[in-house]
Amino acid sequence: MDVTHSLRIAASFATHEARGEAYLFVLGVPNISGAITASAEAGLQIIRLASVCPPAAVRPHIQEGYLLGEYPDMGAYHQKQFYPHHEIDFGRRVAAKFRFDPDEFWRNTEFPLIGKDALYPNRNDRMYQLAESIAARLTNED
Known about the structure:
With 142 residues, this protein is an alpha+beta fold. It contains seven helices and six strands, in the order βαβββααβαβααα. It has helices spanning 7-16, 49-52, 58-63, 85-88, 102-105, 116-119, 126-141; strands at 2-4, 22-27, 36-39, 44-48, 65-70, 94-100. The strands form two sheets. Strands 1-5-4-3 form a four-stranded antiparallel beta sheet. The protein has a two-stranded antiparallel sheet with strand order 2-6.
């Protein structure tokens, strides 16, 4: 799951697809330390994308993004039977849910909405082109 610790980034993502109101979810995760945090106790690994992505991948740096995943990594479904449900269900990590009016939220010009071009990849982005080529190969394998 792709997440951010930035209120501005999260609210911008939520706003661009909003129809009158937007939602933010707050997840409870272990204390983040370093580029990669792995917690066997919490059953979670957290990767700080700015630490592992090359400079050409601008968006992970702008978005202050993190990748959350199961820890240890479970390659097969049958492995999940050994872990309690709450350890592998991100929905159970939701600590709060906020509903807000984007027009009201972005009224302060000193805290502006981040544009779609800065949040979403486009054809000029080298990493977008790489992702598209990988997606095309995966589609052809099916």
